[in-house]
Amino acid sequence: MSALRPEENAPTRVAEAILLVVALALGMGGMWMVGYSIQDGLPEGFWTYSIVLAALAFTAHIVLRLRAPYADQVILPAVILLNSVSMAMILRQDLDPAGIDGANASRHLMWTALGIIVACVALFAIKDHRSLRRLTYTAMIVGIVLVILPLVPGLGREINGAQIWIFIGPFSAQPAEFAKIAFAVFFAGYLVANRDTLALAGKKFLGLQLPRLRDLGPILIVWAVSLAVLVGEKDLGTSLLFFGLFVGMLYLATDRVGWIVIGLTMFAGGAVLAWSIFSHVQLRVNIWLDALNPDLMNGPSYQLVQGLFAMSYGGMFGAGWGEGYPEYIPFAFSDFIYASLGEELGLTGLLAILLIYLVIVQRGLRHAIGVRDGFGKLLAGGLAFVMALQLFVVVGGITRVIPLTGLTLPFMAQGGSSLLANWIVIALMLRISDAARRPSALPTRGALADPVPAAANGDAIAVGGAGPVQAETEAGAGRGATPDDATQIVRGVDR
């Protein structure tokens, strides 16, 4: 394949710019309608919010085109659209005459700006995603430290029944949001080096290939320690997220359906054990099963019930911007922003939001298939999967498909830690997409010929149903495969 000239990539840049304009127009239109619905005029700060959002979006666009010119052109506009719509919803609650305590559009914009800046810095700092593989065990230590921090006396603090926050002076953070990124890097690095032994070594039991304990030991210890700490902090939502990441990446690495069966079995056993031991888990389950119970409606299930009433009031097409009653939903700007959006945008609006998330996840998985190295495949697949799982857990809890967990909707809920962490996830996705879409005749900016020594057991990864050798051969053949790719082709095991 011949190298593409820079001007041949111009259609991609133009398409992304057009999508950014559409995303910003929808968000600004929401803010405009909020103002005219509540104040009969443009809301205070409309032009400031609009100009800052536009400046941030196009700055990210320019940085992306300079540092990762072949990156996906859809992911950034999709995330900007989610941020813009959430900006309109939080501004609507900010302007509500009833006064919604905690809603603050300026604070949300500030954290969005910091998130975009951090993502741009990550794109500059990480020239080749494969360099992260050197940090495999460093990421493991960082992840464990992050989940333990809220338990440190004087640093952690319990809020709303969960001890998941740390406070340093006037600043607060939720470390587990960043721990999911560290664990994704660790799992990807460890699994790509031990993929064959996990998939092929060990004994069979009831038709399932069980790995040897010494091969699974390191990630099993990390998983168990993290879950034990998070359960102690009463952060069951993040516990579920980490467990799903653990099982999902094991499946991606080994292509063994048995891991899904083992994972579901372990989850069922853990859920029953947690329900029998912890009173707060029992309460969550009771709220889920019997939310309309009069004994619960005016207390523990009040938030859930008000969210359900709000979405039912919205109906198919919603009450319209500024015409709902989010003041009746506790934390309508953060934990339950999905319910407040459903009241004003209706089922149609909620489905549109879910489709935007689906596009982001689909693009992430697509680039996991397209990237040429095993570590990138696992990292991109893991990050996309954890975002999809978080979306399911949040929306499922609000709609009573599953019990509430306390997680927040990525990019939409007001919250600094969530916005910063998820923008870092997007930066990593974009960096990997650049490597996946870049013609191999063009070297990655600052690429390493062989970023880490090839694992003794091979790096081949089966993603999308192709056997390990087949997947890597197709990726490397005729594309000027790197030495790292050649090592993977030779050492892969075709099952």
Automatic annotation (TrEMBL):
Identify its membrane topology class.
Multi-pass membrane protein
State the PANTHER family in the record. Answer: CELL CYCLE PROTEIN, PEPTIDOGLYCAN GLYCOSYLTRANSFERASE RODA
Q: Which domain of life is it from?
A: Bacteria
Tell me the protein's name.
Cell division protein FtsW (Lipid II flippase)
Q: Which UniProt keywords apply?
A: Cell cycle, Cell division, Cell shape, Membrane, Transmembrane, Transmembrane helix
Database matches in InterPro entries: FtsW/RodA
**What is the predominant subcellular site recorded for this chain?**
membrane
Subcellular location per UniProt equals:
Membrane
Transmembrane stretches, by residue range? 12-34, 46-64, 71-89, 109-126, 135-152, 164-192, 236-252, 259-278, 345-365, 377-399, 411-430
The top of its lineage is: Bacteria, Bacillati, Actinomycetota, Actinomycetes, Micrococcales
Q: Where is this region: Disordered?
A: 472-495
Q: Does the keyword NAD apply?
A: no
Q: Which organism is it from?
A: Promicromonospora iranensis
What biological process terms from GO does the record include?
cell division
